[in-house]
Each structure stands twice: as structure tokens, then as C-alpha cells.
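Question: what's this shape?

___
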Amino acid sequence: MHDLLIAHRGWQRRYPENTLLGIEQALLLGARHIEIDIQLTADAVPVLCHDQTLERLSASPLNINHCLYTDLAEHSAYEPQRLGDQFLGTPLSTLAECLTLLADYPETTLYIELKVESAKTFGADCIFEAIHPLIQHCANPYAVISFSLELLQLFQQRGGHRVVPVLSSWQQAFSEEVQILNPPLIFCDIHLIPEDSTPADLPYPSAFYEVDRPELAQQLLSEGAALIETFAIGEMLNAESTANT
């Protein structure tokens, strides 16, 4: 299972999410797949952040889409509500910085989630122009992922990028829009699995997220899942190591 786990926003259970700190700690443990979220600043700098605002990350109401990248320097990505002040001073990270870090781990696959909020604010073309130059010569295997199939289609057609949909419903996997993309993988929340279905019923290899228990991961893999995404990458990897000793 070791090579089948995706670190969801880095080692999120232990460190602030979407930070170089949390990502590097996951890599040092041997994570072979990393997932990150991207929002754009007002001057079109791709920043690692799940939300539009810095409320959770920095206890600030600042909207990333409405501020310049330089405005972020005074804010810390430390998640005070969840982690207290122990990571105060951790900087927000950019996609460019993340790609530089990952280059030292060339066998690690990066999944770059483009957030729908940024696409709505700036438009698909702006998102493409901000992201494409950074990833077109990426040293790592990677995929652009998103809930927006329109955005994925643009990246596939204009940039030749490997694109992976994040499903909004189980039925969407069988839709014509997804079929057009012919994705090598699809991401799916475990809560979307119908009671009478298993991962093997999907028409594409699947990665399931919101999985933090080794036994559930093993079950999903045995039922046909290709990959498992988890916030608890360290705990899951350590549990596997313990089981093998």
C-alpha cells in the first residue's frame, strides 16, 4: 500500500496544509504522491491554498484572489484554530516553490488541484496562462485535477497536460463530459460511493479521498481502487511499517 497513498495537502494531520513544511515531511517519510490546491493572487501568482480566504490558514479575512502576492508576506500559514501557534511564521507557498522542492524527489507524482473559485474570479484562460508555463517542463510526473471539467478540457487541449477530474457525483464518472477527457484517473470522495457499488464499477482507475484508516484503505484497494488519498499520510505509512515488522 506504501506506493498507493496520496498525501492530501501534504501531511495535513500533523502540519499546516498546503505548506512546503507539510509537503516535505510527507516526502521524507516516503510519500510517492502529493496533492496540493492552487488559488491565484490578484497579480496571477499561483499560491498553495484550499480556500479563497486566509481565515483558516492565517486567521485573516483576506481574499487571496483580491490581493497581490506581496500582500501575503505578512501572513503566516499556521492554521491557528487547528494547530495553535506552534507553526506561527510558516510562510504561504507558491506553486513554483513546490515544484522546486518536488524536483528532488523525481519519482513522486504531483496532483495540482485548480480551485473553481479562482476560475470563477479570473476565467479559465487566465488560470491556464498562470499555471501552464510553470508545469510544462515539470521534472515530476504530474496531473492537473479539478472539479471543473471545462478547465480540465482547456488544459488538455491547449497544453497537452494530463488531466484528472474530481467527481461531484458518482454518476458523473459515466457522463459524456468525462468520457471526452478520457482521464487516466478520477478522484472520488468515499461518501459518494453508492451502497450497492464498489470502485471496480467505475469506468476509470480511481483515487478515493477522505480515508484516514488503514483498514478502510485496504478494503477500497481490494475492491478496485487504484490510489488512496489521506490527510494522515504519516500515520498511514507508519501503520503499514509497523504491520510489516
